[in-house]
Write a structure and sequence with these properties.
With 361 residues, the chain is an alpha/beta fold. 39% of the residues lie in helices and 18% in strands. The protein binds pyridoxal-5'-phosphate.
Length: 361
């Protein structure tokens, strides 16, 4: 029996991916030169499809890396001379902060307890901070930042670069790129693709910052510095031999999502999230971790497991039905569950999840 992975990354592949992999093999996408016209065309198509899906304006560049971890590092190298500021409320936002410490930046953080969001109105960003790092969807805790909170930070601190980790929410949020300097994601979560590709979006303010640092003799990295990435992407190429299959598949899946319609995807996402939160509220052995509804992620639903039961009890109940959900993250792996709600996950899967959990004896 086929299992369905409702895990928050890696996750179930987008349902069209197997067909696209077959076509890619037929067309020898992995064998062509990454300097060939054929590859340039693939890369151009992928960038166009991402622009359409996420409504990325021409003011922002789109480049490829190996992962979101890599983009954390590249952002700190290219956009920060001395001081960064981090909103931390879970393991992924904490890791971004730790990268800044490892790279010897003066990393400032504002941290709130696991499962909570931020009261951005009361939040002060230190004057020295050059960038504000926000994890829009904290995958470990299932807390999401409302987009209006992100934008209000940019409004209050227009001279600081606002950088947004949207790894586990893309393509769901309708971002206004006019109010975001940089945004990034990797593809093994909401996009439903094999891991090993990061997508980094940034505007001219980021380009100017990287060039200023370079001019001042600072280290901004090597092959994946912003100037190096841009000089290649201008030709629809990459500095290194890239994950050509990944770039090809991302383009195809974005095109598929574009034909389905992003509005449709968003509506279905909200519908399934509502169903999952209602379920975790209703069942006595589960309880949603995130208390404030406006901070609840629509794409990663996290619940505490109560009454002496463990995450494994829930996982083992669902597994025979072909439903694989995630355990809690890190220290919470025994006491919490995480359910991914990505575009590939159908309403039917969520109804099935509801049926099985309703019958938990
Ligand atoms: C998964 C995840 C990452 C890391 O992505 P990689 O592709 O493994 O580098 C970063 N941030 C968030 C919020 C994530 O969920």
């Amino acid at each position: 029996m086929k299992s369905y992975y409702l895990t928050p990354g890696p996750s179930e592949l987008y349902f069209t991916v197997p067909d696209h992999i077959r076509t890619a093999l037929q067309d020898q996408v992995c064998a062509i030169s990454h300097r060939s016209k054929a590859f340039q065309q693939i890369m151009a198509e992928t960038v166009t499809a991402i622009r359409q899906l996420l409504q990325v304006p021409d003011s922002h560049h789109i480049v490829f890396t190996g992962s979101a971890n890599e983009i954390w590092e590249r952002i700190l190298e290219n956009l920060v001379d001395t001081d960064s500021f981090h909103l931390v409320n879970g393991s992924f936002s904490k890791r971004f902060y730790e990268f800044a410490v490892m790279l010897r930046k003066r990393a400032h953080l504002h941290e709130v307890p696991f499962g909570q969001g931020f009261d951005v109105a009361d939040l002060a960003v230190p004057a020295a901070a050059e960038i504000i790092c926000a994890t829009q969807n904290e995958t470990s805790s299932g807390v999401a930042m409302p987009l209006t909170d992100l934008y209000s930070l940019k409004d209050r601190y227009p001279d600081k670069l606002l950088v947004v980790d949207a790894v586990s929410s893309v393509p769901f949020p309708a971002f206004d790129f006019g109010r975001i300097d940089s945004l990034f994601f990797s593809v093994q979560k909401g996009m439903g693709l094999p891991a090993g590709l990061g997508v980094w979006i940034f505007n001219e303010a980021c380009v100017a910052k990287a060039k200023d640092l370079q001019k001042a003799g600072k280290n901004i990295g090597t092959y994946h510095s912003i100037p190096s990435l841009l000089s290649q992407s201008a030709k629809n190429q990459t500095p290194e031999t890239p994950n050509m299959l990944g770039i090809y598949l991302l383009g195809k899946v974005c095109q598929d999502m574009n034909s389905r319609g992003i509005e449709q995807i968003r509506q279905e996402t909200v519908f399934k999230a509502t169903l999952a939160y209602q379920l975790t509220e209703r069942l006595p052995r589960l309880s949603p971790l995130v208390r404030r509804a406006e901070h609840r992620s629509q794409t990663v639903i996290v619940a505490d497991v109560l009454e002496g039961y463990r995450a494994d009890d829930v996982l083992n109940l669902l597994k025979p039905h072909g439903l694989i959900i995630g355990k809690g993250y890190g220290d919470h792996k025994e006491t919490q569950i995480r359910i991914a709600n990505f575009p590939t996950h159908s309403k039917e899967l969520f109804y099935q999840l509801e049926d099985v959990l309703n019958g938990w004896k």
